[in-house]
Protein: SAM-dependent methyltransferase
Amino acid sequence: MDHRQTAPAAARNRDAILARLRDVLPPEGLVLEIASGAGQHVVHFAANLAALTFQPSDPDANARASIAAWIASENLKNVAPPLALDAAAPDWPIAHADALVCINMIHISPWAATLGLFAGAEKILPVGAPLYLYGAYKRAGVHTAPSNIAFDAWLRAQNPAFGVRDLEAVAAVAEDHGFGPPDIVEMPANNLSVMFRRV
Structure:
């Protein structure tokens, strides 16, 4: 049985994100991916950034099965088995990483997951390490495109705790946990690439 799941958005945005990660990630070391989902992103990044080791994670058992199946199908040696990791949990099952990547989680999880993301990252990332986010955000409280207004409404209909977040609110949480100001790059489909560094 093939446990691989697919997400159309991952196939569409993976190369744009990879191009940004080439500029952001260290030349070598361990990259923790939070909320790896189906696993399509992590295998694409690992295949193209062979000097790095990737540690995928997800709180959902079905997602972890998909990640493991993708790793096996691509025969990648620089991807560790997926961890059961909930970003909102006070303790993570990993003590150190050289970089952290989190794609499309913040808007499709409760705010507690964002708070936990930065609290956990503060514990495991060394000074100078990047924390890379990708997704839809509001800026100064305003949506960046009409499509994001509709997306926000759809998210909140799924769960009132979800929703497109204010980038300034995310940056304030980052600052509270020892990260510098964000480096922001506009990406396709009204998404943003947001990178913080541990200071």
The helical segments are 8-24, 40-48, 61-74, 111-124, 146-158, 167-176.
